[in-house]
Design brief:
It is built from 10 helices and 9 strands. The protein is an alpha/beta fold.
Length: about 270
């Protein structure tokens, strides 16, 4: 595979400046983050895949990591043109999004759209797939409008309703409470919901750090800094994506609140 010198590269310095009002970041902080976030390996892949866009970029990453993805329930996929919301658990933090987007998205020529951390907009190879969600603060009006436009479009919407990576609780790895917004938006846009279960997990270190942070009452999600490391630890691994039967948007009636319906769909996902 050739290496392009013109590829987009991740710059920790640029991201920190953008997130801190253009203040110059600490050199020590930059050095630590570069190592922790595996920036050298990330940038090497970005150079190797410089000519890849969108789903082809995701396919290239799966091939680069030699990851095998097994799909169950492919017969449950809605036909192209049937606008849906694909709602999945979020056990890995990156590779689950990549695998779902590629393995399922390739069936929909109309395209897909993924609500995602606005930091990912720095990756120009895949930015067309995302509608940005600001994880560092409140949602700006423009971001809210972009989300509404995504649901009104002909594209399929893929999302992780928990908004964060699964955590371990009492020995079980599960998402935290699911956000109700995918229910309200599915109703408003008349989109059926397709439940997706990803059978995978991160390393024990990830869950240990998450548990320790919680016990120490530290608000900043320190464990999220481990996600690039977790991505590369999945190299040569295998995991399964299970696709459930679509749930009609008409199901989400007034017998339950949107929050309760979100919990119901979450339960369906974990029983696939």
């Amino acid at each position: 595979m050739g290496v392009s010198e013109d590829a987009v590269q991740v710059s920790i310095e640029s991201i920190l400046r953008a997130k801190s009002g253009n203040r110059e970041p600490s050199r020590v902080l930059v050095k630590v983050l570069k190592k922790l976030l595996c920036i050298d390996r990330v940038n090497l892949f970005l150079r190797e895949a410089a000519d890849k866009k969108n789903l082809d970029f995701f396919k290239s990453l799966l091939e680069n990591l030699k990851v095998k993805v097994e799909i169950q329930g492919i017969e449950n996929l809605p036909s192209s043109g049937e606008r849906s919301v694909f709602a999945s658990n979020h056990p890995l933090g990156a590779l689950d999004a990549v695998a779902i987007s590629y393995e399922i998205g390739k069936n929909y020529p109309e395209g897909i759209i993924i609500p995602a951390n606005d930091v990912l907009m720095y990756l120009k190879n895949i930015q067309d797939l995302f509608v940005p969600v600001n994880k560092m603060g409140g949602q700006e009006r423009g971001l809210v409008d972009a989300m509404n436009e995504a649901y009104c479009s002909v594209k399929q919407v893929f999302m992780f309703p928990s908004g964060v990576v699964s955590r371990k609780n009492k020995g079980k790895i599960k998402d935290l409470q699911w956000n109700k917004s995918f229910i309200t938006k599915a109703i408003a846009s008349k989109r059926n919901v397709v439940p997706i279960f990803v059978d995978a997990k991160n390393s024990n270190l990830f869950y240990w750090v998450a548990g320790m942070r919680k016990r120490l009452k530290i608000k900043f999600n320190i464990e999220m800094l481990l996600l690039p490391r977790e991505l590369f630890k999945q190299e040569k691994g295998t995991f399964t994506i299970k696709i459930g039967k679509p749930i009609s948007w008409k199901t989400f009636d007034n017998t339950k609140t949107p929050k309760e319906w979100a919990g119901e769909v979450r339960n369906i996902v974990y029983n696939l």
